[in-house]
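We append the chain.
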Amino acid sequence: MPTTAGTGAEVTRNAVLQSPEHRVKVSLRSGLMLPRVALVDPELTHPLPPALTASTGMDALTQLIEPFVSKRANPMTDAFCREGIPRISRSLRRAFQDGEDADARNDMALASLLGGLALANAGLGAVHGFAAPIGGMFAVPHGAVCAALLPGVMQMNIQEARKQDATAITRRYDEVAQLLTGVATARANDGVQCVRTLSEDLQIPRLGALGIQPESFSELCEKALHSSSMKGNPFRSPSVN
């Protein structure tokens, strides 16, 4: 029974183990962790304060965008993402501004569930590839880290798709932009700006404000190379080669 609209963990076989002493945060996976029944009641999320609504909601959005452009994307997960992304785009700000907005909370709860189903079947990407080591090394909210990373990772993948003439990936990001904006003519960069503006409206801090400084970048990149989430990213980031 989730009490946030973020991880979608109620429909995955994933759990997370963190060891602050070792500055490590890793995923555990087992079919034994799949519940027989998942009860998703949006009313349980009404008491969430705005900051938690924002960070968990941005995690949910990331877990719909990354599977949609993942190397393992498939027609089933595409359907989950196409249903979930517009719900977050239209409702996350509203839930942030008014926690008792039942329609917004309903949208967010369903979108989070769909994100869990999508990531369980299509994987994630570089946002989560970096978020895992960051979460191990710094005491920061996972969703806030995802929100801070998402526009940059989207931009990097879009640039790489154009560089490699990977039109299928560019079209995926065009569709993400259309799902986010509701505008049929929107293109990939519009989606990046939409996500960036959403994070600003939700008062998500940037990485520097979270205490993540350049002197940690080399270690973070090295750890991100070994993250399982990186396997789903459509391209290997030049910053971690």
